[in-house]
Structure prediction request, 446 residues.
Amino acid sequence: MNRKYFGTDGIRGRANTEPMTAETALRVAMAAAGLFKRGDHRHRVVIGKDTRLSGYMIEPALTAGFIAKGMDVTLLGPLPTPAVSMLTKSLRADMGVMISASHNPYEDNGIKLFGPDGRKLSDELELQIEARMDGDLASDHAASDALGRASRLDDATGRYVEYAKATFPVGKKLNGLKIVVDCANGAAYKVAPTVLWELGAEVFPVAVAPDGRNINDNCGATHPQLMQEAVLLHQADLGIALDGDADRVIMADEKGNRIDGDQLMGLIATTWAKAGRLKNNTLVSTVMSNLGLERHLEKNNIKMLRAPVGDRYVVEAMREKGCNVGGEQSGHIIFSDYGATGDGLIAALQILSVIGERGKKASEVCSIFKLVPQVLTNVRADGEVLKHPAVLAAIDAAEKKLGKTGRLVIRKSGTEPLVRVMAEGDNADLVQKIVAEICEVVKKHA
Prediction:
């Protein structure tokens, strides 16, 4: 499947260089409008964004493209990706758009598209949009008297705050809990502290002063050290670190120990299975999830299904298998009972509800299995290097060394020009050596 613009999570790249330019954003909007204008009603698209400086360039370009095709645009301002997904469906919009490069540095930006059901688009729809982008986009412009209009939804933040709070158990509160929340200077810098405070917690917010350039800058889910240190500094009960668009979460217990997505998913899966809430008694994860999680679930008679990397592939597998919990080691966790995409804040609330039910410290509740030694190294290289005979030979040799006691996952990143090399197994030294050997061959032939 050859793609020119879309990766595993929408379109992403360096701001003001292709494909992340105002011109391309305009064409994306025009092309997508052609697919989602169905029927003779007034068509609407909602647009949210994170706090990147380049959002001021991408947002008006998208708006112009949709208006030119006769679609009304509702601007949401800075909001988490899951909020855009929720509001797309809630407002009965024909589609939704999130302007964000998620966990990437501020120099990058991206465009994520949602259908009227709030779900990210399928590969097939993205390919149709790509084909339209390179075609004649002027053929179906709206007439002068049928142009769309743009307006701003002033209560978008409040709507998401209430939506998130409604996912917490009725009648339960966070009273007495001291919680650090790191918002990555990103899209959740207002809503996350508000939700936690309104639920009764004493909140210590960090990285909540976005300036357009500091999103994900040594903070957030990809740099949880800031959150971990703040937990110790404030003697908090636990910490929550979101990424730039708040669709993923990493947590820390009261000792400052990091709790990743695999541990969080394992806790929810086992808790919900015992309560009869885990549909089909199955958790959907990805090829990157730790072997320790798989072994833990197996001991608890819970099935684990591995999907390709990317939360939309997890969602597709969840729909196909009728599951209601899925996610990624990186902290994308999807609860289909509550939303159509990963939501870092709602995932944290579900963990908080379990901790509250058990009446124990986070360190006693959240680390539920022993991680199998796993090493992940990123090499800056084009994905084509994975076809090189020397690289293929190194991979084959590594798989033979690991045998049945471990796993090897090597893939091209769908969001950055990187090759990701991951190995895991019971022998930590062997795993480290294997990853180093493969990375060396990749670098040599990159």
Q: What stands out?
A: The longest helix spans residues 428-445. The mean pLDDT is 95.
